[in-house]
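User: Can you predict the 3D structure for this chain?
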Amino acid sequence: MLEIHNTLSGKKEEFKPLEENKIKFYVCGPTVYDYFHIGNARSFIMSDIIRKYLELKGYEVTFVMNLTDVDDKIIKKSIQEKVTSKAVAEKYVDAFLEDIEKLKVKRASFYPKATEHIYEIINLIKKLEAKGIAYNIDGNVFYDVSKFENYGALSKKRTEDLESGARIEINEEKKNALDFSLWKKAKEGEPFWESPWGNGRPGWHIECSAMSCSHLGETFDIHAGGNDLIFPHHENEIAQSEGASGKKFVNYWIHFGFLNINNEKMSKSLGNFFTARDILKIYSAETIRFFFAQTHFAGPLNFSEDLLQAAAKGLEKIQNLYDRVLSELNSEKNEANDVEFDFQKYFDLFSQAMDDNFNTPQAAAVIFDFVKEVNRVISQNENISGKFYGQVKLFLDKTAEGVLGIINTKASTTTRNLENELIELLLNVRLEAKQQKNYALSDKIRDDLKALGVILQDGKEKTTFKIVRE
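Assistant: Here is the predicted structure, written as structure tokens:
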């Protein structure tokens, strides 16, 4: 039974999809004015892991991630670079798609753009205006928070306790400080669209409501995003969507914890601001994904070079077994022995961990236990059948790679081939040494390979080898 901690209720709940075997899943994507940072990467990767696990369980997942391509930050960047805001957005949409592919994040079912949903945005605002929830002040349209009874339910904030702050837009035209923009009157030099309230552009919050409901319906299963979006962004999404439809907006809210850099908040002013593109130049996607998976998605996470190196080191055990399995599956065996191994036990343990609010640290621990036990079996048995190695590969493909995305299957094939070729080269040198009766060199090659975990088996016709790794 899958249980999810729902931010709205503040507790774990049994997951029950709106439609049997189908899940509608929305994740807040980037505002495309720059390369996304490593904190954003955590949200994108953890959403990807959750989605892939749901698919492993047999659900058909419609996964939507929006692209905010009209925003104050985009306009500011366009002025700085002396290009159009459209050119800025297009550049960083392309960069975003390149970088998440490198991070092994599966493509979304839809990547809706705000500029492609202006019609839906305007219609949503018109509904709110017709219900008396939105008001127009000289071409600027605001949401009247006092008209939505449950405002603050997601963030657990009381409206009477809220004051205008850094994340709350200050505007003297508003009825009160908590009201937020739905439509912004056009300013000179800014992009705009025609509307019933005059030329302008949408506010940030209304874009997500329009895009999510357009692709997933007025009520859908899961909405995810970073903790920093709970208030005011997600709170305002609920107010807008439910204010317009009169229906529950989202059944399960999932939020990802904050990421610090060396125990400090990430900030350009502190010089500790890293984009995912920066980190990918140094560490593999598998290492980054494994690093994130080692901490529960809801908790805070400290990002440091030492921790990344430790993740890379730990990952070697899984990668080494995977490479060994591929090597064994491609080797010829005259006699093969079946061994007993409870693969279902480890599938069940992995599922139990992930069913408990997507507990990736525990799921990773199950994989490590599996690797340790498989290595023990290999070390105690010779000429194991391909069936066994095939089942090992199946488990790792479905869990370590299929869900967590932490095995480099492309590199392992190349590495395995090169490794085998180098060993064969040494075997030929050893054979020549034996033919020349240089037994000292022959024995040295054998002993040195053994020290590296390569066991030679001299036969009548040829010498074969077996790679043994801890």
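The chain has three domains: 3-256, 314-408, 411-467. DSSP finds 14 helices and 15 strands in the chain.
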